[in-house]
Design a protein that fits this description.
eight-stranded antiparallel β-barrel; 60% strand; 153 residues
């Protein structure tokens, strides 16, 4: 099951990579792909659907299992150049742990920095979540989030 989810996620990233928009060396970007590390590590994709809103998808892989998260984020500028932004949002996740599958609701708050002279984006966020289901993984989790390092397209 994990292999199929990883393949699906990589196909989505590959499709996004073929849609480059030429803003890699500017102060903003449309889409970025890379890694996110915190409680494990994983593949990460962020794409803007408007000037101030974005969708972010992360596939975390760690020793207890896999977690696929999708978030809707609202962004605002923190500097006049437009390459440092705050964001806040909400979304959901699916967790596939050893012997347990669950779903949950997520929030997110963070900062996002686009390096002006390079096709590089760095973000740091906190992503509290509520896991819905039964078993020992049920309840509130305040230990999700991460440091994302992404290549901008």
């Amino acid at each position: 099951m994990k292999q199929y989810l990883l393949i699906l996620f990589l196909l989505v990233i590959g499709g996004a990579a073929s849609a480059q928009n030429g803003t890699a060396n500017s102060n903003d970007y449309k889409t970025a792909i890379g890694i996110k590390v915190w409680n494990g590590g994983g593949a990460n994709l962020k794409t803007f659907v408007s000037e101030k809103t974005a969708l972010e998808f992360t596939g975390f892989f760690y020793n207890r299992g896999t977690r696929i998260t999708g978030l809707y984020e609202i962004h605002g500028d923190l500097n006049t150049e437009g390459n440092l932004r705050w964001y806040i949002g909400a979304g959901a996740h699916v967790s596939i742990y050893k012997g347990y599958t669950g779903v949950g609701i997520d929030g997110v708050i963070g900062i996002d920095y686009k390096v002006p002279s390079a096709p590089l984006n760095i973000a740091l966020d906190w992503q509290p979540a509520v896991e819905l289901g039964s078993g020992s993984y049920n309840g509130f989790y305040g230990n999700w989030g991460g440091l994302a390092i992404r290549y901008t397209l």
